[in-house]
Write a structure and sequence with these properties.
350 residues, mainly alpha, 17 helices
């Protein structure tokens, strides 16, 4: 970080303190750096400058070694190249920019980034039409724009219906039958899109809408069937997306658990143990299901080990209160099992 912040600079010192955990609040900063206690406005200023400098450095980050899957990595890489090409165009380095955009277009098409694809196509159409006067390329790109604008409209409407349903009905705790009926109504509007278009967003949000028809009324067999169909669809894609895999596997896990198909739950948990980034919110939610599965299937030792792994994780205390409260309840379960001798004495020694 010295290159970005300046070696030994005030910003670097504050960043190091934040990164190490020595500073978690303004009060911590004032204790560690007494000058801020005497000059509170100076702390406010340096915090603002540090935030701006880090934001400016986002495009320098390399996500290839992260836990992100292929499609996520591609999104960050494509976003960086798009920003770079726009910068080149603004600096009149148009030849380099167009070459970069042509290469970038192949990536956005492969990974189905429809909106970014449209931005690239519009830029290329202007270039080949107005600046190059290439009628054939201008017409061909125009046809592509028409095609992808249709895809984008389908994606926009499907995403909008799903967001509307979740925000207005699911989160407001509406009657389950009302949610199911509204989901059915919305899905009827987008079902033709799933037949006309194979893009990621249409099928991700469209399939979630269909799932809510049954999931909202606890129809686990039909929900499980739809989750399995969705996983099969996304498995055929020319890329891997953790978002789709996490969402549909998580919902499938819930279905198996409620249908008391515990062996399927255990197989699913083993198959997807590397899918959820350890320490993330979704990982903690998956561990809840895994714990319940082992408890219901009488694997009490395994349940105790899941419990210990979760509460001893460094990120546990940063989880939302409902998550922590649930594991406190699970603690009571494991203590009772321990007291009646169903868990080996050494199992809970953490």
């Amino acid at each position: 970080m010295s290159i970005i912040l300046g070696p030994g600079s005030e910003m670097e010192q504050l960043y190091d303190a934040l990164a190490s955990g020595a500073v978690k609040s303004d009060e911590d900063a004032k204790t560690l750096f007494p000058v801020y206690a005497d000059q509170p406005s100076r702390l406010h200023t340096i915090k603002g400058k540090l935030k701006d400098r880090l934001n400016d450095s986002i495009l320098l980050l390399d996500f290839r070694e992260s836990a992100f899957t292929e499609r996520q990595n591609a999104f960050y890489a494509c976003s960086k190249k798009w920003a770079a090409s726009m910068t080149l165009i603004s600096k009149n380095a148009r030849d380099n920019a167009i070459s970069l955009l042509e290469n970038l277009l192949r990536q956005t098409l492969r990974f189905e980034f429809t909106e970014l694809t449209l931005d690239i196509l519009r830029t290329l159409r202007l270039h080949y039409g107005i600046l190059e006067g290439d009628q054939k390329r201008f017409d061909r790109i125009g046809q592509q724009i028409n095609e992808f604008e249709e895809y984008w409209n389908m994606e926009r409407k499907t995403e909008g219906y799903y967001a509307e349903l979740v925000t207005r009905y699911v989160r407001s705790k509406s009657d389950k039958d009302a949610i199911s009926e509204k989901a059915r109504e919305y899905f009827s509007q987008v079902q033709p899109y799933l037949e006309q278009c194979d893009t990621f967003k249409v099928h991700f949000f469209g399939r979630l809408l269909e799932i809510l028809i049954y999931d909202s009324i606890n129809d686990y067999p039909n929900t499980a069937r739809l989750c399995e169909d969705a996983l099969s669809f996304f498995a055929k894609k020319d890329y891997t997306s953790s978002i789709a895999l996490q969402v549909f596997n998580y919902n499938l896990f819930i279905c198996y658990l409620n249908m008391m198909q515990y062996q399927k739950c255990l197989v699913l948990a083993d198959q997807n143990k590397d899918l959820f980034e350890e320490g993330s919110y979704n990982w903690f939610k998956l561990q809840e299901l895994y714990f319940l599965t082992t408890m219901h299937s009488g694997k009490y030792y395994e349940a105790s080990q899941i419990y210990l792994k979760v509460i001893q994780h460094p990120a546990f205390e940063q989880q939302p209160q409902p998550v922590i409260a649930l594991w406190q309840l699970f603690e009571a379960y494991t203590c009772i099992l321990d007291q009646v001798g169903l868990i080996p004495d050494s199992a809970l020694d953490g």
